[in-house]
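User: Assemble these into one structure.

Assistant: Restating your components, then the assembled model:
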Amino acid sequence: MTVLTPDLVDQVRENAEFNASACMNCGVCTAICPLGSEHLPRGIFRYVLLGMKEELLKQQETVFSCLLCKMCEVNCPAGVHIVENVRTLRHYFDRQAFGL
Amino acid sequence: MSERKIGVYVCHCGGNISDYVDVDRVVDAVKGEEDVVVARTAMFTCSDATQQEIYDDIQQLGLDGLVVASCSPKLHTFTFRGVAKRAGLNPFLYTQVNVREQCSWAHTDDHAGATEKAIRLVRAGIARTRLLEPLEPTVVETVPKTLVIGAGIAGLRAALGLADIGLSVVVVEREAEVGGWVRRLGPMYPHDKVGADLIRQLESEVRRRENIALFTSAEVVRKAGSFGNYMVDIKTHGQSSMTMQLQVGSIIVATGFDTYQPEEGEYGYGIEGVVTLPEYRAMLDAGEGPLIHHGRVVQSVAYVYCVGSRQGDGGPHQYCSRFCCSAAVHSALLLHRRDPAAHQYHLYRDMRTYGRYELMFLESRDKGSLYLKFPEDEPPAVQRGTDGRLLVTVRDQLTDQSEVQIPVDLVVLVTGMVPRENEELVQALKLPVGRDGFFNEIHPKLRPVETVVDGVAICGACQFPKNASESVASGLAAVTQSAAMLKRGRAELDPQVAAVDPELCSDCGTCYGICPYGAISPRDLTTGKRVAAIDPATCKGCGGCAPECPERAINLQGYTRAQILAMIDGLTKEVV
């Protein structure tokens, strides 16, 4: 059971762009990802939006293994800027996990 | 014995009938029936060409009875009555036999059986037609005045609409103030117009009109008479309690709804900080800036949708209340605007912000509202948290079915609409109530505001859950229906109603209690004999009284005892 952290999205965002509110969880991104990654991107974005901090922190490996190939982004029917969101997430992990 | 001249027309309906029923065999089997002078098939009996053929037969052969074997009487009764009338034949000397819905469509696997059934049904139709007598519609003069029951937004707007057309209006409101639910509301979707302002505007307009009389703290307790000329008793409460009698031509019912009141403990209702949607709206409408509850700023809100709606097979409220998704999302937008830092979680089963209200849903997502979809069989649980806040546990189907706990300051139960208790009014007006407890229209598409009680229309949320604009739209539809009937000055009513033979009636009283429309009452004849009398304008021709009469004194005109017996003989005759 996860207790939500309401301002997680603000912590992730800081001054950068993070917007996934249009995501409707259709799963095209998951299906199309050449890495076959189960969590990227919709699952991880959902963790950020809801504030599931523990689950998010477990996804460090996935976030950094993303190829930024944009296959998901050009196919996203809701027009989510997936790659920009992943970059923002990498900055968050830099701050959070590596103290950069 | 009789010397009737009956024409029989059996329809192919393109192939709808003739693909399964051998229509030529039907014609062969019935053309020798007594009094049948012409029997033929037609590709489409309802076509202009065949209507002309029937017209010519009536005129040239002097037909005095007409049998059309085609589709349901619901579809074309008025078409063929019209043909008869144009040709100079009394329209009630015609019988419709349904060989499509009852034969070809029902027995696609048994052509011979369908044909045999069609033959029997047509014979019954002929047998009835042989005994038919001309009937004339009952004509009533209409009183150019309408009673509107309920002065909510729908009733008030309807009253103005009627007055604009030039009818007199009486508005009766049970509460001391007009305006119903809308009067209590602040900004309403979609244009953020303040509910109380809308009502003030309508009320001042209503009070200014000379042809509208408004009674508050008043109720309708009795209705007598019939369409076009009702007598209603109105009882006023309070200091000057009295009953007055009014004569009106039609009635519009706009009595509105109640909101669902959760049980103690339902989604934590009863715990401090768990409120219903109307309670939340009152909190929002009371102030400005960040929402304060019990001296603390509300930093986070969880909305639980579908409370008291869509309850499944077991519950009394199986319907969707329609307005609540949009109303809750709109409330969330109000809070987003006032306090952008507030966190808002929407726990839903399905979001139904239909039509343009979808834009509010999209806007709320952009502003940060989060939507979590919970499974129907695993609703969210609300409990008191350790820090004085509330803790909502929910399984989110959109996040790998994860179970999460949300700490919030306020839980809003998005409660739906339930039918308002109005037993006395239902009894007084004989209103048809559906299984869900709301009032029923005749036909949801084609007659959406009329009821089976002639001249009594329904509108607003007493019919089914509607938002304010839909309520007003249906109120104006009721205005059109009411005014269209009253402006004619006279109404023609179906003469196929029950009638009492005073010779046979023994005034036993059996029928008085049976009539669901209260159409039967005792009458003293000039001879001094007291008998039952049926008001032809109130009777619906349901036939409920006829078989109950021990003296066989009641007959339904158009379906008399003799006609029914002849039809049974026709049905049971050997098919050769």
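Strands of chain A lie at 2-3.
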